[in-house]
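Figure caption, in words: inputs first, then the predicted bound structure.
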Amino acid sequence: MTDNPYVTLSSATSLDGYLDRADPPRLTLSNDEDFDRVDEVRARNDAILVGARTVRRDNPRLLVRSFARRARRQVAGMTSSPWKVTVTASGELNPNSAFFTAGDTPKLVYCPTSEAARIRRRVGHTAVVVELGKDVAMTDLVADLADRGIRQLLVEGGGTVHTQFLAANLVDELHLAVAPFFVGDQRAPRFVGDARFPWTSDRRATLADVRQIGDMVLLRYALSDRFARHDAEDHYRLATKSLAMGMS
Ligand SMILES: NC(=O)c1ccc[n+]([C@@H]2O[C@H](COP(=O)([O-])OP(=O)(O)OC[C@H]3O[C@@H](n4cnc5c(N)ncnc54)[C@H](OP(=O)(O)O)[C@@H]3O)[C@@H](O)[C@H]2O)c1
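Bound structure (NAP present):
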């Protein structure tokens, strides 16, 4: 059996824990420096996962923006941007949305077996549709990604997906970037929904790093014992890649 990918969950929230406002247009939580930090995190991962509602609502491209980072990936033999992954039961995905049309990296759509034929007809020409049984369990999804060679997975929302990954204890590292304002509207999506999470007042998560990013703060939590080894290896990999690119 292949090891599960190393999972980083990255999210920006308001001070009151919201991911967005209730109604369009999309709320911008990050500042420019934080968007650039997220771009670097993306560049270090093999695949990015977002829920289907994020695809519908935000129409994200999910590409590495920086030319230098795309070049660094290519030198390392990777696709210029990570694979894109989404999950749906309704199959309400527009094949003309940026998730499917932007970039030439592989795209995967996970769904229940009962919906697979219908979803394949809709987006099968632009993505690989993977059926995962009666209901899609995130444990099965990450195991399937591992079998496909994904070693590092970045989970980028929204709250429904966060909740399942965190409650199933599948996240190795959590990045929470907090923006300095409130949303104050319970109709808006939250960072997570109700669930039994592995971290409670009796079992506190480990805070690994706190960093100020302009007017935001980045909280980095180590949620598994793979964190320390991965952190050290990641620094080594980055240093050797920079040398290969002639960068300091
Ligand atoms: N601030 C941030 O960093 C950030 C990042 C990303 C997103 N967001 C925001 O988050 C909001 C969306 O979050 P959300 O919680 O509403 O939705 P979401 O997590 O993006 O997507 C939920 C959808 O994913 C599919 N899904 C999730 N788990 C599934 C499972 N086990 N099996 C089958 N399908 C599954 C379902 O799609 P179907 O409905 O198609 O069945 C479900 O409705 C948006 O407003 C977006 O802007 C914010």
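The first strand starts at residue 6 and ends at 13.
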